[in-house]
Give the backbone structure.
Amino acid sequence: MGIKERKEKHKENLRQSILDAAKKLFLSEGYDATSIRKIAAEIEFSPTTIYLYYKDKAEIAHALHVEGFKLLATQFGVLQFVKDPFERLKAMGEIYLRFALENSDFYELMFVLKEPIAHLKGSCVYENWEEGEQAFQALLYNVSACQQAGYFKNLDTTAVSMIAWSTLHGLCTLKLHGHIDHMSSHEPSLQQMEDIVKQSYNTFMVMLERIK
Amino acid sequence: MGIKERKEKHKENLRQSILDAAKKLFLSEGYDATSIRKIAAEIEFSPTTIYLYYKDKAEIAHALHVEGFKLLATQFGVLQFVKDPFERLKAMGEIYLRFALENSDFYELMFVLKEPIAHLKGSCVYENWEEGEQAFQALLYNVSACQQAGYFKNLDTTAVSMIAWSTLHGLCTLKLHGHIDHMSSHEPSLQQMEDIVKQSYNTFMVMLERIK
DNA sequence: TTGCATAAGTTAACAGTGTTAACTATATTT
DNA sequence: AAATATAGTTAACACTGTTAACTTATGCAA
């Protein structure tokens, strides 16, 4: 029947369909609600079959984590058209922010959860965090370009990059984990801001621009 | 009525010893490994007894979360002796950073996990996040004092405070979740830094100081 | 064709988790 | 003494990740 045919097709690339099922569940119900058993039910195989294709749940998490970085990389793609270094850095931050807020589950997997990258250390040949490094190198490049254009004088490129990343990451996670919302509901100065994240980001950019 | 009072006290005692047991487990084994059943075993009561004193696990998490904020508040205490506003802001950041790195489990509970503050919304009279607010108000006060001393001119106090908090929070979480370490092991520019967090923080302070 | 090894997938189980309904034993009140 | 309220327990539900042991199907050499 139709189901059997579909099953046959799945068998051809079971590893991929496990990942697809995981992704589907993960995007619709979040990471915690994505259990091995639910993935198995989705592809209509027994839970133990998953372990024939992935070492454990962390390995699936890592595979999704890689997908997330691919998605972010494509969104960073437009940056090549922004010629002015500072404008490019600004745009990079905006893309990062939007990515985090619009793909919060992916963001969690990429920059919050320990599992996907802890998995690296456990397995393989002491593999490093390739995805994160690439993104950071792009940031380093942009910060460096800004410095050549006269920004961030006498400041360490790496340290400035770390700060830029940290600020954005902090803003994203405080928002995503509900801390900003919980505070804005009662703190008057925050209540007045209509978009705290966006306004804070803009202020940060003004701060960066005004470093003498 | 003496008997009733003693009973009340016993009830209070048990509620407190549940919290103590939870804290002990949580500090030695982390949040995830602190299960209701383990807490029960620690105080030598059955797991269900816990539910006579706390609504659910999130309520225990919230109680510990409050303890964490008390601890942070005492560490902030020394700030009153720092008269210069900018130096005080600097010291505040250093205390925050040290607190996060030395009490990573508490930090997770206070600023990362959703459970303890999501619990607020679920129960009570739409209670707000008192602890977080108080800490933020202290930050607002210090940023405002800096502005009166000529720093951060023409910048919104709340936005600057949000950025300061975000930057510190970002730095802390990237470190605590292993993202910095995973990157520093292969990225050359990071390898050269002996203490990435500390050096980045210092750079951030220089950046703030140099805003024209 | 028979016999067998390998691969692929399944069943059943282990050791946990948070949480709840229903029960018991004890102490207090009527 | 009987009724009631309190405190705590047992047993269960519905989950979780993960593993050992089993079955079934396939391809290949004798």
User: Anything to note?
Assistant: Chain A touches chain B through 58 residues (CB under 8 Å). The first helix of chain A runs from residue 2 to 12.
